[in-house]
Amino acid sequence: MAKRLDDMYPSEIVASLDKYVIGQEEAKKMVAIAIRNRSRRKKLPDEIREEVNPKNIMMIGPTGVGKTEIARRIAKLANAPFVKVEATKFTEVGYVGRDVESMVKDLMAMAVNMVSAEMAEMKSSDVDRLVDERLLDLLLPTITEKKSSDNDTAVISAEDSTREQFRDLLHKGVFDDKMVEITSQGGPKVEVGFMGTPSSMDDIQDAMSNISSLFQRPRRRRVSIKRAREIFREEEMAKVVDQDKAVEEARQRTEQMGIIFIDEIDKIASGSRTNGADVSREGVQRDILPIVEGTKVNTKWGVVDTTNILFIASGAFSMSKPSDLIPELQGRFPIRVELKALTADDFYRILTEPANALTKQYEALLGVDDVKLDFTEDGLRRIAELAWSVNNDTDNIGARRLHTIMEKLVEEVSYNADQMRGQTVVIDRGYVDRQVGEVASSRDASRYIL
Ligand SMILES: Nc1ncnc2c1ncn2[C@@H]1O[C@H](COP(=O)(O)OP(=O)(O)OP(=O)(O)O)[C@@H](O)[C@H]1O
Ligand SMILES: [Mg+2]
Q1: pLDDT at position 308, please?
Q2: Residue 449 placed within a domain
Q3: Which of 292, 266, 312 is nearest to 70 (CA)?
């Protein structure tokens, strides 16, 4: 299992971010330090710990330079509960839409899922065995009926050995497509209802779905063995996990290690304009305040204290400045990191280095149609140069420009792949210029196409 996020040293966190995010050293460092500081804080004696609050981070930088990407990668890094929310999705309490408390509920929900999955994973072999037995029960009755005309004692030992043979065949996938009739619970099992009074539409919706699942009776349906295995697995997993224990562990992780990433925070800054929309944006900012400051939020799994949750806000702040946020909110994000605009060199690295680099994605995609892409060094350099110059000439959309250029670049191959099976397409400087050079050099054309 991967190292827990809270056991990782800053340099280790940065090293794992490096695999996906090029450059932006400062931002990666600050995020890593903030995460580490939380686990340091956890180890302090009580009286000091009370005094140390997590320092929230604000990431500021132009569009498409890796702000969200850093958050996305942290989310995948390890087992700290993490959610990413868009500030623009929230509305002030009392209005139709999501209220800000839902981000804490989402975080808790994510932690519960994560912990349950971990617990089920630990009992995975038990689950597999149980599922096997249930599937064999489905498969075998037909056989024993046929044999029951023979004498009784023979039947029993025959049954045993057939069961073993069947188990073997089952594992080999021989029965995967065989249709069987199973009884399954309609919806998810009813969970604890919400505690206290419902505080938002989300709660009410949750409650409604709980109630409706009460009325869903088990139903019989015909499915393939393959599908039956999935359904049984889900049911058995739910049974082996001790829900109370999972919820308790999830709540601890949420409160102690949870990270909420609030994206597009600049979009709720009001700037100098004052109109109706701005008033409600300010309302959202005011609603966010107590959550960042530390408050107790009712979730359907109980009360969650947000005091030690780490908040990372992020925004391009091209139309507004951090100082356009209400002062109280600015003050709650004391660590500011700036992400820099990317250079042609960065683009080159982004094209090639990350494990999920664009060139690797396209190679894989076209590989499906048996066409091989061969990117040469000078070809890659040319793509990076073009991306950079189009960004310079038109709008700077950061690394997203690579996506538009790559799409245009492989358009022809993508379309004609069926006639190019078995071929290798060499993408060198010449090829890049032929495919996108002309469009890229014309300002008007690139505005529309790239
Ligand atoms: N530094 C980087 N390293 C690797 N890939 C990057 C980097 N910056 C951006 N990208 C790529 O560009 C795309 C957009 O980046 P991202 O979503 O992080 O933008 P952003 O900074 O959040 O911009 P916005 O302000 O518009 O939300 C991502 O798919 C990512 O793969
Ligand atoms: Mg973003």
Answers
A1: 87
A2: no
A3: 312
Which residue intervals of 78-140 are DSSP H helices?
102-122, 124-139
- 66 and 25 Cβ atoms separated by less than 8 Å: no
For the stretch 297-334, pLDDT in tens is 999 999 999 988 999 999 988 888 888 888 888 888 99
Residues 174 and 156 in one domain: yes
Best residue for ligand 1 mutational test, from 65, 84, 318 (most atoms within 8 Å of Cβ): 65
For 388, the token pair is 């950079």
CB distance 352 to ligand 1 below 6 Å: no
CATH of the domain at 395: 1.10.8.60
Place of tokens 């320092």: 55
Q: What is the Cα–Cα distance from 28 to 30, expressed in whole angstroms? A: 6
> Concatenated DSSP letters for 395-450?
---TTHHHHHHHHHHTHHHHHHGGGGTT-EEEE-HHHHIIIIIHHHHSHHHHHHH-
Q: Are 163 and 135 in contact (CB under 8 A)?
A: no
- For ligand 1, atom 24, the nearest C-alpha belongs to 63
- 84 contacts 71 by C-beta, under 8 angstroms: yes
Low-confidence ranges of the chain (pLDDT < 50): 1, 146-148, 187-197, 272, 274
- What is the rounded CA–CA span in Å between residue 146 and residue 140? 10
Full-prediction pTM beyond 0.70?
yes
For residue 273, which amino acid is it?
Answer: R
- In this prediction, residue 193 carries a pLDDT of 43
The residue count for the chain: 450
Domain boundary among 338, 355, 377: 338
Q: What is the pLDDT of residue 346?
A: 94
- CA–CA separation, 101 vs 86, rounded Å? 13
For ligand 1, is residue 62 a contact (CB within 6 Å)? no
364, 389: one domain: yes
Q: Is 23 in the pocket of ligand 1 (CB under 6 A)?
A: yes
pLDDT at position 199 is 52
pLDDT digits (tens, 9 = 90+) for 201-258: 566 666 666 666 555 667 788 889 889 998 888 888 888 888 899 999 999 999 988 9
Nearest atom within ligand 1 for CA of residue 23 = 1
Q: Is 97 left (phi over 0), alpha (psi -120 to 50) or beta?
A: left
Distance separating alpha carbons of residues 350 and 23, to the nearest angstrom: 9
- Last residue in a domain, options 338, 369, 391: 338
Report the domain count for the chain.
Answer: 3
